Amino acid sequence: MSDEIEISGGGSTMVATDGMRAGLDQLRHLQHHLESCHREVAAMTVNGIAPRATSSLLDASHELHLASTRCRRLVTAVTTSIELYSEANHAVLTAVRSASSVAAWEVGFMLYSNPSLAGGLLVAGLGILGLGMSTGLLGFALGLVRSFAREHPALLNNHVLPEIISEIEMNCDDFWDGLHGRPYGSAARKAQSMKGGPDDGYGHPSELALSASAIATALAQLGMLRETGIRVERVRHTLAIRPVDSVASLFAGIPVASAQIGNARVRIDRYVMPDGSLHWVVYVAGTIDFNPVPGTEPFDMTSNIHGVGHGISPGHPEGTPEQTAASTRAVLEMMHEAGISPTDPVMIVGHSQGGTAATEVAARGEFNVRAVASFGSPVGQMIVPGDIKHFIVKNMEDPVAAMGGPDRDPAAIIYRRDMTAAHALHPGSAFASHTGDAYPSFARKLDHQHSELGRELHDFVHDFTAGATAGESEYWRAERVPAASDPALQGAAK
Fold first, then answer.
1. Are 403 and 165 in contact (CB under 8 A)?
2. Which residues cross the membrane (predicted)?
3. Pairing relation of β-strands 266-272 and 278-284?
């Protein structure tokens, strides 16, 4: 496979590499140029004393007409080829997913039909997990897995694992149907009858979000994945920054934890535009604490799960503040305290969990977000309002991005690439497709795309702060506090 970038979305059903799109754009440009030349030549008149010139003009007009017609047919043929490829790809995926969805429903219905089996498995699972945590065996086992994965990076950086993860998550709907004793296909029929809602595009929370909520609720009994309150603080202020002008510089703005910036996880840039208005760019970093038991860091595993769950809790499918990921609540509070008004244009970008928080902020509508970009984030099930540019960037081998499930936002522009086609995997990094140079190199490549859709992210980034007369940065961090200490969560259940 090549290192070309595959692009889809943007309101189109077509899937193609940037090379194919660039070629199609060039053909369309040539077609328009030929048609323009034909019109100009056809409009020319020649003095009657020059019959040869008249004949030559007629010949030229005829040849230009033929050339423009052939070019138009070629444009149609290439477009049709891309569409047919997309349709064939969709047909194969549909067949595979139909079989796996039936299997998922069967497993769920088997547990529904045998409540003693389901209860026994749940109790046994929680018991084994609790025993592993209390004896330290769980941490020891995870340490062995991490060490093995570092020495054998292909274990977690391949095309198969993300596909498996995506298929499992796509079948959550059918599994939950079976587990609740509902007929096969109930979720799909419900989706069809409730189109137009804000959660998953069909008016009800996605089953992936419900699954994440169920996991959080179950593990909360063991002290894990319990949400808390948060407190935010500005840790550094930097004056005189340059406008962001490329995808590479946009990604480079995402904070990397260090003492120099007070271990900040969020950066907020403020730009004064030529007309005196303010434009803001918000950068959100990813997970830094992977312990399922929440400590003081809100960018942790608890926020990961609640971020996918979108604040949903049992009995509250519309979402509740106390179940919204702490990282999302932290970003919202930081933006308010930084002085961003509801009308100021905002661009927000994040990596990994930071992209999930950024997309959730955009979807909530508290700010005038013009664009959101996520790199390697599990945001497949998330949809933002149609007037917001939605850019999703992910490596095909990245298992973290795959955890968001299949992409549902029809307006999102999705950039994918086969990272291992051009980058060899070396021992030392368990998630080479997610960390290190995985996305900085992708961002640099996006700055050199040739097709119109391929350049859309670069062009938006470049134009958003173009001409800014002044800019300054603020670095922010947050910490978890008891829910009772957070005014935003007063009255929330602990």
1. yes
2. 117-145
3. antiparallel
User: What's the full length of the chain, in residues?
Assistant: 494
Q: Is 147 exposed, middle or buried (0-12, 13-18, 19+ CB in 10 A)?
A: exposed
Q: Is 264 exposed, middle or buried (0-12, 13-18, 19+ CB in 10 A)?
A: buried
pLDDT 10s digits, 62-111: 888 888 899 888 888 888 887 777 677 667 767 766 777 788 888 888 88
Distance CA 39, CA 430 (A): 60
Q: Among 4, 271, 377, 95, which residue's Cα sits nearest to residue 362?
A: 377
Which pairing describes strands 5-9 and 389-395: parallel, antiparallel, or unpaired? unpaired
Phi and psi torsions of 114, nearest 5° = -125, 75
For residue 78, the model assigns a pLDDT of 83
Closest CA to 17 of 29, 33, 1, 28: 1
Reported as a single tens digit per residue, the pLDDT across 232-271 is 999 999 888 999 999 999 999 999 988 788 889 999 999 9
Burial class (CB in 10 A: 0-12, 13-18, 19+), 494: exposed
Angle (deg, nearest 10), helices 160-170 and 172-179: 40
Q: How far apart are CA 33 and CA 283, in angstroms?
A: 42
Quote the longest CA-to-CA distance of the chain.
Answer: 104
What distance in Å separates the CA atoms of residue 55 and residue 288, rounded to the nearest whole number? 75
Closest CA to 16 of 67, 81, 60: 81
How far is Cα 466 from Cα 469, in angstroms, rounded to an integer? 9
Q: Which tokens sit at 480?
A: 């978890």
Q: Which pair of tokens denotes residue 188? A: 């799909």
* Measured CA distances, 288 to 211, 258, 364, 399 (Å): 23, 11, 24, 17
